[in-house]
Amino acid sequence: MVSSPRSSGADANPENSALFELFTSHVEERARQANDSTRIFKGTQLTDPRVYLQCPNSPTANKYRLAVYHFKTASQILQKYEKDKVDDLKDCELLRPVFENIVYGHVWEKQYVFLFCSTENTPNLINQYIMFKPDDIFAEYAQYLILWRIESKAKQKKNLLSDFESAKKHIKTAELLAFKVSKNVDCQPCHRVILIDLYYDLGSKYVATGQPERALDSYQKSFELDISNYAALYGIAYMYMQSDPEKAIELFKNLSTWRLNVRSNTLMHIT
């Protein structure tokens, strides 16, 4: 099983190499934009990677570095898989690291999921893989993430009703997967990581579909599984803004204090 690596800060480690590649591609894209201004309005706009290189030991830099590493690794492994189908368990062993790295990349930072170079046949490979390994949570979650990404691109040409229906379908899939993962969360540490991410993702989709009670419940479940998950705490505070503004303000204060403490600890470590 692939374990999510922790950055050591060494220049030669693979996580730093992956981030350096992203930095290089960012600089190259900036140069292309200088010659073609229309490129600015195309593709995904991301924070300049140089922001993370300025404080390489910060929690934020570590998070982005690991996300880039996992998505790049997943792409490289998939590219080396020369078959167009999954024939047996041996093929499954070759593909399993792909799904694990997709999931860990998404856990660390969702916005870099575009770095995973999926192919038209990737959904078919996952379906065939799951036929051999129906209880592989990594494959199921990777399937959910990839299909959501594919449909998110396609739905740009559809109307708002189709967007809403698409979100409802993915919510149902995520709810079923969360229930399945929750049954073994205490026995499998990796299941806890996935469940934290799933609950947070569900919270966001509940917000988008006008289901505030369910959104709050999902954010709370995500936070209860990891009390250092400030994104989930922010979601909880956001949901209280209408129903209980005073509680929302108190939560936002707690969030600000927590982030300042993290920043102070990081600066102490750097200096």
Question: Helix/strand/pairing class, anyone?
Answer: mainly alpha
Helix count from the secondary structure assignment: 11
Major sheet details:
none
* Average pLDDT number: 77
Rg (C-alpha, Å): 20 Å
Unreliable spans:
5-11, 33-45, 262-271
Please give the alpha-carbon distance between the first and last residues: 36 Å
Helix content: over 70%
Q: Rough shape?
A: globular
As a percent range, the share of strand residues is under 5%
How many β-strand stretches? 0
Classify the oligomer.
Answer: single chain
What's this, in brief?
With 271 residues, the protein is mostly helical. Helices cover 72% and strands 0% of the residues.
Characterization of this structure:
- The chain has helices at 14-35, 50-54, 59-80, 89-108, 122-132, 137-154, 160-182, 189-208, 212-225, 230-243, 245-270.
- The chain is mainly alpha-helical and 271 residues long.
- Residues 5-11, 33-45 and 262-271 have low confidence and may be disordered.
- It has eleven helices and no strands.
For the structure shown, list the relevant keywords.
disordered C terminus, mainly alpha, single chain, 271 residues, TPR_rpt, globular, TPR-like_helical_dom_sf, Tetratricopeptide repeat protein
Task: List the SSEs and their pairings.
Elements: H1 14-35, H2 50-54, H3 59-80, H4 89-108, H5 122-132, H6 137-154, H7 160-182, H8 189-208, H9 212-225, H10 230-243, H11 245-270
Helix pairs in contact: 1-3, 3-4, 4-6, 5-6, 6-7, 7-8, 8-9, 9-10, 10-11
